[in-house]
């Protein structure tokens, strides 16, 4: 059962990274590769604590 939960969390995390990177051009963030990678990898924590990031994350997911 623990493996299933871990697998689901991993899929959600990787899916969030993929979706964020796919729509990154719609955000207000710096376009550098280092910024893109760091913001994509830290998305769960930033989503919880940063309202500006939350708004830009939604822009990336919606694609506008």
TrEMBL record:
Domain of life: Bacteria
Protein name in UniProt: Uncharacterized protein
Organism encoding this protein: Synechocystis salina LEGE 00031
